[in-house]
Amino acid sequence: MKMTRFIIVALLVFATGLMLPKVVSNPYYFYAGYVVLQYVVIATGWNILGGYAGYTNFGSSAFFGAGAYMAAFLFKALGVSIFVQILGACVVGMLLGLATGYLTLRIQGVYFAIATVALVIVLETLVHNTEYLGGASGMTHLADPAPAWFGGQTQYVFCIMLGLAVAAVVLARWIEVSWIGRGFRAIRASEPAAEASGVPTLKLKLLACALSGGVMAAAGAPYPTYTSYLDPVSAFSLLIGLNALAMPLIGGTRSWLGPVIGAVLLASVQQLATVTISSEFNILAVGLVLIAFVVAAPEGLLGLRFRSRAA
Amino acid sequence: MNRLVVEGLHAGYGAVTVLRDVNLEVREGELVALLGMNGNGKSTLLNCIMGFVRPTSGRVLLEWEGETIELSRSAAHETTRRGVAYVPEGRRLAPNLTVEENLMLAGGSGRGKAKLKENLGFCYEMFPILDERRRQLSSTLSGGQQQMLAIARALMTSPRIMVVDEPSVGLAPIVVEQVISTIRTLQETTNMTILMAEQSFFQAIEVASRAYVLSHGRIIHTFDQKVDPASSEEIRSAMMGIA
């Protein structure tokens, strides 16, 4: 069975990652690698709704931010471990996805996209006005020391994010080969056609929203531990929403590999640019790369491969 | 008796009334033709049966194996799952799925799920060209092949009744003949119950066991037996609103 082999390879990748802290000593690589992996999770989550089902979400940072704030809240209120924080973030993300979906899926195309932008503003305003969450000035988040094996907090969250990335990719792959994935793609093509095939389109769209939201919120959960600080401006940053849709578009939205390639490429370039040029350069870089791809490779890098094969 | 009944159906879009007091019945094993020119309400009627359009009054009932299901209240995917398969006008396949994925999608839930392999085998036997092109994207098929796929997709749901909307639309005359004869073969070999809307009426009446003529949203004529080609002129006049 192909899926079993896929899961075994995914687990091997994760196991290799767990060994990295013993081999690589410079923590900067983990610090930068964390961001790349975080975007692998976000892009993969975005692609479940945006790529497979064809609903463009501009508000990914709402889900990321909600996940991050849920994690910080759970830690501040109950002192629970990072795994429980991730679980809590995941649940909040799914509920948020479900609610957004329920309210907005009757509108399609550009209107759905606008509604998702509004969600970011609503949540950010909510956090700004909640004193317990630190309001506009943010909150510190001093996590418990990491297990000794990892040699430091950065290496630890890197490995956790790697685990999330592996889980997200396995989920995406499973959706792709399952009946649900075919249903999503049929929805993307034509909803009446999907209905005629006996596909419950509204239910499947809600499922896509919930899964997508859950994954993106999970990506936000380790963020406060990673930076030991959380503020609304960076949690609900425009860059996250932009990257979330740019990465799958660059890589290709048809398969799980597209968002992974897009995230690794774009996030690495951004990390390099942050070190060598300036962190402000990032948004400009995303914009330019995105325009280039829309013009030259509208179906992403994987689309180019398919196209050259067909020619 | 197993049958699909439409009772006193009125339907429309907003302020526009399309169907006025439509009554019809499709009994098990029949191939019923629904004839009418463009814009007389054929598709609206089929859309009401499927659940895409809600009637303003009247009912659509599926009386089957002692059960009575009111279809006019169920969503389209539920209608499909209850055994009324739909072959939409203009095929409406999922172009980004392969031939086999289109079939697996339709057959992978509801009534067809338990017989997935069997249904797939039957479809490939009936349409060898689809077997040959199973890994191709459905958008790369010719119009006639796409229509075959749309019919096969309906078969994958293990239907009690097939509702076929204008299978001849957008096809070359020779392909229209092929499609219609495919539907006839299907009906003869499997005793499938079929309701087929058509405006290419000479072809439709050749295969239909009974026919209804729809004009301005009303059933204006009913042929209660196998239509005699000799009376086809009568149907034609009825459709054109001359008689």
Can I get a quick summary?
Chain A has 311 residues and is mainly alpha-helical. Chain A has 15 helices and two strands. By secondary structure, chain B is α/β, with parallel strands linked by helices.
General description of the model:
The complex is a heterodimer of chains A (311) and B (243). With 311 residues, chain A is mainly alpha-helical. Chain A has 15 helices and 2 strands. Chain A has helices at 2-23, 27-52, 60-78, 82-104, 110-128, 153-177, 179-189, 191-196, 201-220, 223-227, 232-235, 238-251, 257-276, 281-296, 300-310, and strands at 139-140, 229-230. In chain A, strands 1-2 form a two-stranded antiparallel ribbon. In chain A, helix 3 packs across helix 9 (201-220) and helix 12 (238-251) runs parallel beside helix 15. The longest helix of chain A has 26 residues, at 27-52. Chain A is globular and about 55 Å long. Chain B has 243 residues and is of the alpha/beta class. Chain B has a domain at 1-83 and 163-169 and 195-243: P-loop containing nucleotide triphosphate hydrolases (Rossmann fold, 3-Layer(aba) Sandwich), CATH 3.40.50. Helix content of chain B is 36%, strand content 28%. Chain B has 9 helices and 10 strands. Chain B has a 6-stranded mixed β-sheet with strand order 6-7-8-3-9-10, with helices on both faces. A 4-stranded antiparallel β-sheet of chain B has the order 2-1-4-5, with helices on one face. In chain B, strand 1 (3-13) and strand 2 (16-27) form a beta hairpin. The radius of gyration of chain B is 17 Å and the shape is globular. In chain B, 50% of the residues are buried. The model of chain B has no long low-confidence stretch (mean pLDDT 89). Classes of the chains: A mainly alpha (311), B alpha/beta (243). At the A-B interface, helix 7 and helix 8 of A face helix 2, strand 6 and helix 3 of B.
